[in-house]
Give the backbone structure.
Amino acid sequence: MNIITGVTSLQPDKFQNERGKRMDNFSETTVSKKLIFEGKIIKLEKLEVKLPNGKISEREIVRHPGGAVVLPVDDEGNIYLVRQYRKPLEEHLYELPAGKLDNGEDPLQCAIRELKEETGLISQEIKLITKIATTPGFSDEILYLYLAKGLKKETSRLDEDEFLSVCKFSIDELMAMIKRGEIIDSKTIIGILYANIYINI
């Protein structure tokens, strides 16, 4: 028995999940929009949307400018993380260097800036790996993940409200930390798994 939750009267030939083949359009049309909150980093909007079946529903969406994340890999195959306190979780997390995009900023420039600010490293070879939709159920935040190689040490320049330490690990150490639940940050796990699968280290 094939059960698809929340979808009614679907025929097997209505949608196909194979690459290059069309699926039914389940998009929602925005009917109205209301700004609930606007802060320094995020905005919260309440939307009325028209569903594919014609009914009206509500969506609460966090608007975020997005950010850049850097996977710094040195010549020995070590990866640099930062350890910092995250107030929403009330704990210290290991994370890849990352930062918010300034208004209209190129993600590559953001990645270069955040790598130097947080770790004191500059990269001679940096390229985009992928984009990450962090929490698409309620936020439009997109993170751009970059691989940085050819690292050279300079001086870090943290923001006034940033307090963190820089750590260096082998890929085996990082994979073990993920398995033990010591690394829980999603962007960092994605970057480490990418390094473990695709980079010869």
User: Anything to note?
Assistant: The longest helix spans residues 107-119. Residues 84 and 90 are 11 Å apart (CA to CA). The chain has two domains: 14-63, 67-198.
